[in-house]
Design goal:
Elements (H helix, E strand, L loop, with lengths): L1 E3 L10 E3 L17 E5 L4 E7 L5 E8 L14 E5 L2 E2 L2 E2 L9 E4 L2 E10 L8 E10 L4 E8 L4 E4 L4 E6 L2 E6 L20 E4 L14 E3 L21 E13 L2 E12 H12 L7 E2 L1 H8 E7 L7 E5 L2 E7 L3 E8 L13 E4 L8 E3 L3 E9 L7 E9 L5 E8 L5 E7 L4 E6 L3 E4 L2 H11 L1
Parallel strand pairs: 7-10, 16-20, 25-27
Antiparallel strand pairs: 1-2, 3-4, 4-5, 5-6, 7-8, 9-10, 10-11, 11-12, 13-14, 14-15, 15-16, 17-18, 18-19, 19-21, 21-28, 22-23, 23-24, 24-29, 26-29, 27-28, 30-31, 31-32
């Protein structure tokens, strides 16, 4: 069953669809291991599962409203994509690899194969990304690179590839009708490269950069005045960074860059009209006014999780006593905040009405435990920097100590926290309802 909760605040109707066509393709026992991609605007459900030999992903295209397989407009009922491998073995992080991205009649997928020999052999990566028109079956764009990359379709003519050195924008023809796939695109053919701040060369061995983008999809029954604007969607780029904590001592901290699609399209339009002479824009030319940097200090990277929906980013930071939810909204309607750069410390408490207007530099100080000494507390800090306007709200969700591995889903007006090992769902609609009241005002 597919369900989207409705809301009187957002004007979105409740949607429920009972899908049974999957029983002819996917066995019930394999459902927990499958992945699901939904595009309401195309009445499309994609169920992805591993092949029997564990080397491929099979992506099956279903129609939601008519509950049929295959989708009546799909050129092929199933898309077969190579699974990523690591050191000759299958990569064990399906949430971070082999991701499927769908926008309108386009579908993008990627995979990488890496090899690491003896001490004299350099670690090598071969990354490939494909974009296909799933209605015609024609591959319209292919990319190959030498590092693990994330990819996102932002419209029918452009795709983003994020790496540690920044954001790369490529163009393609979505209506390409040739039966043979196009030649592989390389990084040199990019339209635009938005550089991130430079890091020391020795940090290149750190974990690959990860990026998150969720452009809202509308249903035909959604009220026009309440449909989310996809042009203001937010791109989040997460990477690790070595930070000095004393003479000869360093610690890995997490950095999250928030970039609006309006910023990317603005830079792309300026280059296309001849305002920029170079394809490569240094961080100082676009970052201070078009992005936010969230520095997550003293927070274990494995405890952090991100969820995106349109112009909102949700950070989940668990502590022994509670789960801290921080929602950041970068929609232009919150630009009533000011643009001055300052520093302000906010001490979280259990007042759910605490909200911070974050056009300034902000810090969240969260009380947590030391790893080696559980009886000692430390302060976990989140610093939000940049002059790009946004609104931030903090909300603590208390939970018993035995709840671990929380999974968080962000919708247009609610935050769902699903805790394990026991089945428990915590819904916190207050966060985004406050944003809705701000917009109505």
């Amino acid at each position: 069953m597919l369900h989207r909760p409705g809301s009187a605040c957002s004007g979105l109707p409740e949607l429920t669809s009972l899908c049974e066509a999957w029983t002819s393709v996917v066995e019930p026992m394999s459902l927990p291991g499958a992945r699901y991609t939904v595009d309401l605007s195309e009445d499309l459900l994609v169920i992805s599962r591993l092949s029997d030999d564990q080397t491929e992903y099979h992506h099956h295209f279903f129609s939601i409203s008519s509950d049929c397989y295959p989708h009546p407009f799909a050129a092929s009922p199933v898309l077969r994509a190579l699974r990523s491998t690591r050191n000759g073995r299958v990569f064990r992080c399906p949430k971070e690899a082999d991701r499927l991205d769908i926008l309108s009649d386009l579908v993008a997928w990627g995979s990488f194969q890496d090899t690491c020999g003896d001490e004299n052999t350099k670690w090598q990566v071969a990354m490939e990304v494909h974009v296909m028109n799933w209605k015609t079956g024609a591959v319209v764009w292919r990319y190959t690179g030498g590092q693990v990359s994330f990819y996102h379709l932002i419209d029918r003519h452009h795709v983003l590839v994020t790496q540690r050195d920044g954001i790369h924008v490529f163009a393609f023809d979505p209506d390409r009708g040739a039966l043979e796939p196009p030649a592989h695109t390389t990084i040199q053919t990019q339209l635009l490269h938005l550089r991130l701040p430079g890091f020391e060369p020795e940090q290149e061995h750190l974990n690959p950069v990860k990026s998150f983008l969720h452009i809202p999809r509308t249903h035909r029954d959604d009220r026009p005045l309440f449909r989310p604007d996809p042009s203001h969607s937010l791109l989040a780029i997460h990477m690790d960074h070595m930070h000095s904590i004393g003479p000869g001592r360093e610690k890995i901290h997490s950095l999250v860059f928030l970039v609006s699609l309006m910023t990317i399209r603005g830079c792309l339009a300026r280059w296309q009209t001849g305002w920029w002479r170079s394809l490569v824009l240094p961080w100082d030319d676009w970052g201070p006014t078009g992005a936010r940097i969230i520095a997550l200090k003293n927070i274990d990277k494995f405890d952090l999780s991100l969820a995106m929906h349109g112009s909102r980013c949700m950070l989940k930071i668990p502590t022994p006593c509670n789960t801290n939810l921080v929602v950041i909204d970068a929609h232009p309607w919150v630009r009533h905040c000011g643009h001055d750069v300052a520093r302000q410390i906010s001490w979280p408490h259990y007042d759910a009405n605490m909200a911070v207007e974050c056009s300034d530099v902000q810090s969240f100080v969260i009380l947590g435990h030391y790893r080696l000494r559980p009886q000692v507390f430390r302060y976990e800090t989140m610093v939000l920097e940049g002059t790009f306007p946004c609104h931030m709200a903090w909300f603590p969700v208390s939970h018993p100590a035995h709840y671990r591995g929380n999974h968080t889903v962000l919708t247009s007006h609610q935050v769902f926290v699903v805790a394990s090992p026991l089945t428990r769902c915590i819904t916190t609609p207050w966060l985004t309802q406050r944003f809705q009241r701000t917009r109505e005002a």
